[in-house]
Amino acid sequence: MVTFTVTDQDNGAWAVLRVSGELDLVTSPVLRQRVHDVVAEGRHRLVLDLSEVWFCDSSGVGVLIASRRLLRSCQGRLRLILPARGAADGSHVNKVLGALGVRRLFEVHPDVPSAVDEDARPLSA
Question: What is the Cα–Cα distance from 13 to 73, expressed in whole angstroms?
Answer without folding.
Answer: 18
